[in-house]
Write a structure and sequence with these properties.
Elements (H helix, E strand, L loop, with lengths): L4 E6 L28 H9 L8 E6 L3 H7 L8 E4 L5 H15 L4 E6 L3 E2 L2 H17 L3 E6 L10 E11 L2 E10 L4 H9 L3 E10 H11 L1 H13 L4 H9 L8 H6 L5 E6 L3 E2 L19 E3 L2 E4 L5 E4 L4 E4 L4 E5 L4 E5 L6 H10 L7
Parallel strand pairs: 1-2, 1-4, 2-3, 6-10, 12-14, 13-15, 14-16
Antiparallel strand pairs: 4-9, 5-11, 6-9, 7-8, 7-9, 8-10, 16-17
Helix pairs in contact: 3-6, 3-7, 6-7, 7-8
C-alpha cells in the first residue's frame, strides 16, 4: 500500500437505546457491555495490530472528550477530533477527512463505529487490509457488507452487483443499491436474494471522499475547505465551533453512498454485532438453559428469554418471558424484548417531562 492508512473511529453517538445504563456523560461506547474493555477500548485494540496509535483518530463530542481520553490514554491528544455539536455522520466524516488530509493528502481512511463487536478479529483486519489496497488502486468507496444471519428489520441492506475485483483473496462487488431498514416481509426477500447488511464500516482515500462530498454535499465541503484555507492552526477550532452548528445533519449513507456511482462492497462473515439495543445482548452474554442472558446477581424461576443487567441489587424474575430488566442506582427499566427500539422515544419523553436529570 503506497498511502498511509488511518482509522477514523466514530464515537459521537449517544446510545440512547441503552438507557438507563447509558447517560449523557457515559454513552454506550464507553460502557463495559461485553467481555474485555469498554466498546471503544475494544474497537481501538482490534485495529492496533494493523495501525499504530498515532494513526488512529476518534471523532466525538466536546462533552465526551475527557472520558475518551481517560479510556484511551495511548492515543495522542491531537488525534481526538472534536465536534462542537453532533451533525450525523457526513459532517463528522468530512471533518475527519480534512484532518487525515493534513497528514497524508491521499491517506486511506478506515471508518469504524466505536460500539460494534467483532468475532474473528484477524479476519476483520484481513478484510480491512484488502479494502485498503482496493481504495489505493482506484477511486472507489468501499463498504463492508455483512452476510445476514436472518431477516433483521433493524439494518439497512446492500444489493450485491457484478464482480468488480479480487484483492488478497477477497471478492469485491459493485453495489447494486442501498435500501433503508425494511419491513419483515422485505427483509426476508432481501435475504433470499443475497443482499448484505450495511455494517456502517467504510474504506476510502481521504481525497476521494472529499471529492464525493463536494459532488453530493457541496455546501458541507466548501464550508470545511474555507475553514482549512483561511484559519490555519488553532484558529480552525474557533471557526469550526462557529460554523458547525449551522451545518445540515445528514448521514454519509444518505448524503453520499446512496448517490455515488463509485461504491463497491466486500461480503464479510467475521461475526458482527452492532449491539444496537438491549435485546442484542442475548447473543453476547452467556445464556442459561431457559435462554435468559443476565449480568449481575439475578435469580430466575420460570423465566424465559429475558435480558437482565444489575450492578448492586438482586433482581428476581418469576414466570415472565421475553422481558428486559435494567437496574441502576437511580432508574429501573422494564420492557418487552420487542420494545427496546422505543427507548429513544422514552429518552425524548424524559427530556420534555422535566426528568432530564435521569439522562
Amino acid at each position: 500500500m503506497t498511502s498511509e492508512m488511518f482509522a477514523v473511529i466514530m464515537a459521537g453517538g449517544r446510545g440512547t437505546r441503552f438507557w438507563p445504563l447509558s447517560r449523557r456523560n457515559r454513552a454506550k461506547q464507553f460502557l463495559r457491555i461485553a467481555p474485555g474493555g469498554t466498546l471503544i477500548q475494544s474497537t481501538v485494540a482490534r485495529i492496533q495490530p494493523l495501525l499504530p496509535a498515532d494513526r488512529i483518530l476518534v471523532v466525538l463530542g466536546e462533552d465526551q472528550l475527557d472520558e475518551a481520553a481517560r479510556q484511551l490514554p495511548g492515543l495522542p491528544p491531537e488525534n481526538f477530533v472534536v465536534e462542537p455539536v453532533g451533525r450525523n455522520t457526513a459532517p463528522a466524516i468530512a471533518l475527519a477527512s480534512m484532518v487525515v488530509s493534513d497528514r497524508d493528502p491521499d491517506g486511506v481512511m478506515v471508518v469504524l463505529p466505536a460500539d460494534h463487536l467483532i468475532g474473528d478479529e484477524a479476519d476483520f483486519r484481513g478484510v480491512l487490509a484488502a479494502a485498503g489496497e482496493a481504495a489505493c488502486k482506484s477511486s472507489v468507496l468501499v463498504v463492508l457488507g455483512i452476510r445476514p444471519t436472518g431477516p433483521d428489520t433493524g439494518f439497512g441492506y446492500i444489493e450485491v452487483g457484478e464482480m468488480w475485483a479480487e484483492e488478497s483473496g477477497r471478492s469485491i462487488h459493485r453495489v447494486g443499491r442501498f435500501v433503508e431498514k425494511p419491513t419483515r416481509e422485505r427483509a426476508e426477500k432481501y435475504v433470499e436474494e443475497g443482499f448484505l447488511w450495511n455494517s456502517g464500516m467504510f474504506v476510502w482515500r481521504a481525497s476521494i471522499i472529499r471529492d464525493q462530498i463536494a459532488m453530493h454535499l457541496p455546501e458541507l465541503q466548501s464550508t470545511l475547505d474555507g475553514i482549512w484555507n483561511t484559519a490555519p492552526g488553532s484558529g480552525r477550532s474557533e471557526k469550526i465551533r462557529e460554523v458547525y452548528p449551522e451545518l445540515d445533519a445528514v448521514s454519509i449513507d444518505y448524503g453520499v453512498m446512496e448517490k455515488s456511482a463509485d461504491t463497491v462492497v466486500i461480503p464479510c462473515q467475521f461475526g458482527w454485532n452492532d449491539v444496537g439495543s438491549w435485546s442484542a445482548l442475548a447473543s453476547v452474554w452467556k445464556k442459561d438453559e431457559q435462554g435468559n442472558a443476565v449480568r449481575g446477581q439475578v435469580v430466575t424461576m420460570g423465566a424465559k428469554r429475558c435480558v437482565v443487567s444489575t450492578d448492586d441489587r438482586l433482581v428476581a424474575l418469576v414466570d415472565v418471558e421475553d422481558v428486559i430488566v435494567v437496574d441502576t442506582p437511580d432508574a429501573i427499566l422494564v420492557c418487552r424484548s420487542t420494545s427496546d427500539q422505543k427507548l429513544r422515544d422514552l429518552v425524548n419523553l424524559l427530556q420534555v417531562s422535566s426528568l432530564d436529570r435521569y439522562l
